[in-house]
UniProtKB/TrEMBL annotation:
Protein's name in the database: DUF58 domain-containing protein
Transmembrane segments: 20-53
Domain DUF58 as annotated: residue spans: 217-351
Record has Membrane as a keyword: yes
Statement: the UniProt record of this protein carries the keyword Transmembrane helix: yes
Keywords: Membrane, Transmembrane, Transmembrane helix
């Protein structure tokens, strides 16, 4: 069942009044022997009977489309969302008002009846035809990062016979989602910082070669090392042959984000520049995808499960970028956060190969200790410094020398 029907107390009271009037009229006609009054009583009883039948049947065959769908947008994008209804009843619903609430992540261009900081209520004029489908399009514009849904859905319309209000409250969880990706903000200097190491990614030009992946042979030259000689190929061709090995590299970015601000009392407060931090992360994910680099995300927003924080494993390509942007979009500005120490410790335990590490958010002495440790292990470590509408790179072990600033 999709709807819970409410007829309203005024409608019930009107029936009571009409029936009470009919009983009085019946008693009077019997006492004074007024046969004409029976015609009026019959009309009243018929009216109430038809009204009760209408009350029971109206809205019974009405369904509201509830297919799972996600509209994925960047701030400023516009879409039109179809609201689809199907009425299997012979009774049409005329001059109705379909109402719902949507979070302020998106803003409707029409039908707004009330607006708050977090939610906006909409009212769409809607008439549903008998035994047919009705579709209405509502335009929206993406405003800010986040995820929102349709809530508090109900449909109200006047009673066809007595014009009192009837309410249909939608019961299921509606599965339509608006996912607004963060607006990317540039991080200057990041394109000039590269860290290649031996890995599994193939490359035409790389200082690293995989000794177990020969691509073929070529004629031996005096500069070739002796251990690179391919003896079987040399015997077959009757001249010395050198192994040609497959070139590869690894250039993985680890984006580690601290969403907490330092507090003198040790409390975990959400960073005041959380939106900027997540926008820098979105820019870095886009840039890594453009360059073909794998990347992973560690964010100290609390979640249920293991690990107890937001973690996106290493991956690359457009599909991984879409996962990352949606991952970031789902973090709420008022999200519960976890100590950044937990994230740093977990990240440190999972390091098994050299990577380029980017640290976003406030930095404590503990962050610097980890950065010093990773630097000694031949990692490239950078701190992303918020400069307002853009960010720059800085060595977390130095107070000066910000990359990307003139």
């Amino acid at each position: 069942m999709q709807w819970r029907k409410e007829l309203g107390s005024s409608l019930t009271q009107s029936y009571d009044k009409v029936l009470a009037f009919s009983l009085i009229l019946l008693f009077t006609s019997l006492v004074f022997n007024r046969s004409a009054a029976f015609i009026m009583i019959g009309a009243v009883v018929a009216f109430v009977s038809f009204s009760l039948i209408y009350d029971r049947l109206i809205g019974k065959g009405l369904t509201f489309q509830n297919e799972k769908h996600a509209y994925k947008m960047f701030p400023g994008d516009r879409i039109e969302v179809p609201l689809s209804f199907e009425n299997q009843s012979r009774l049409p619903i005329i001059n109705g008002r379909f109402q719902f609430k949507v979070g302020s992540e998106v803003q409707g261009e029409k039908y707004v009846v009330s607006q708050g900081d977090e939610w906006t209520r909409y009212e769409v004029p809607l008439t549903v035809v008998e035994r047919g489908k009705t579709e209405w399009y509502v335009p929206f514009e993406a405003r800010r990062r986040g995820v929102t849904i349709l809530r508090d859905i109900h449909y109200s319309f006047p009673h066809l016979l007595n014009f009192h209000e009837i309410f249909l409250y939608y019961l299921p969880f509606h599965r339509l989602e608006f996912i607004v990706y963060p607006e990317p903000l540039p991080v200057y200097g990041i394109e000039e910082r590269n860290h290649m190491t031996l890995g599994s990614q193939q490359a035409r030009l790389s200082p690293f070669e995989d000794p177990v992946s020969p691509m073929g042979t070529r004629d031996y030259t005096s500069s070739d090392p002796f251990h690179r000689i391919h003896w079987k190929a040399s015997a077959r061709k009757q001249t010395l042959q050198t192994k040609v090995l497959e070139k590869n590299w690894d250039h993985t970015w680890s984006i580690v984000i601290n969403l907490t601000d330092p507090s003198p009392g040790g409390h975990l407060n959400v960073a005041s520049n959380i939106e900027a931090l997540l926008s820098y992360a979105a820019y870095m994910c886009q840039l890594a995808t453009k360059k073909g680099y794998p990347f992973e995300l560690y964010i100290n927003a609390r979640k249920i499960g293991t690990p107890p924080f937001y973690y996106l494993p290493e991956g690359n390509g457009k599909e991984h970028l879409q996962k990352a942007l949606e991952f970031i979009a789902r973090i709420k500005a008022r999200e519960l956060v976890i100590s950044f120490s937990v994230v740093l410790h977990r990240f440190d335990q999972q390091l098994y190969k050299p990577k380029t590490v980017f640290l976003l958010g406030s930095q404590s002495e503990e962050v610097r200790r980890y950065a010093h440790k990773w630097s000694r292990q031949k990692f490239r470590v950078y701190a992303v410094q918020d400069q307002g509408d853009f960010a720059t790179l800085q060595d977390p072990l130095e107070k000066e020398g910000v990359y990307g600033q003139s």
